[in-house]
Design a protein that fits this description.
Blueprint (H helix, E strand, L loop, with lengths): L7 E5 L4 H9 L7 E6 L4 H13 L4 E5 L8 H11 L5 E6 L23 H24 L3 E11 L11 H22 L4 E7 L5 H7 L1 H14 L8 H11 L11 E4 L3 H10 L6
Parallel strand pairs: 1-2, 1-4, 2-3, 4-5, 5-6, 6-7
Helix pairs in contact: 1-8, 4-5, 6-7
Amino acid sequence: MTNENDSWALILGASVGTGAAIAEVLPENPGCKVLGFHRGNHADEADALVARVAARGGELVFCQKNAGDLNEVENCVELVQQFVPKGKLKLFVHSLSGASLGHFIDPDERDETEVFEHWQYEKTFNYLAHSFPVWGKALHEAELLAPSARLLGLTNALEHQMLHNCGMIAAAKAALEMYVRYLSAELGHYGHRVNLLRFGAVITPALSQMLGSEAVKEFEQVHEHMLAAGRTCTAEEVARFVALLMGEDTAWFNGATIDFTGGLTQRLLDIVYHPERYS
């Protein structure tokens, strides 16, 4: 792949999980510089990631800022401009977490999950959905995007299923998908590409918090039966695929929701109608 030493990738939510895996892969393949944003919740992990990348001769810089706060986007972009020259941002990855778990009405007394408060609607949609087009607009207006820049949102299969306390996440991810479609048309006029990557079950800190430590084990066991590969996806696999999307061979992807679930979306209905196959 062509060396991208003069190009940059910007990753929101890059200290842990899938965002961190992407930040670790890109300095080596395709060889671009990486600027990551994180809120400071995993500062030690972020420092360790910077050290690993530097040890291999790559460049990764972190900014500690709340990139999901829409009122802070302008200030965040000013920080980006301190590192990334105009026209050199080849890839923008939206990997923000910060969603609320719960129910829309009072749950059954056997369920300890709380009902959503009004502020949780705003926070979840700002982090998971609204921040994507706001950042895209800000980066475009600041003339930071490189020719044929790639803007990539990350999603999961939740909008195709019901996981008991994840209704807010599913709704926000559905909104993100629509933002990607419209932005792909609007930014496509400038030669850029906007896509959504739907990847399968990856055990990340966000997922562990969503399910709980005990449920994660059961979650993995179920997916061993559901997926032909007999395992869940890894964050590193997602990261390597994102690196491929930076290449010219994938330039025709635009407005797409790319299925990288390993066949998970094909099995969701099957597990509903034939649960005995997964017991």
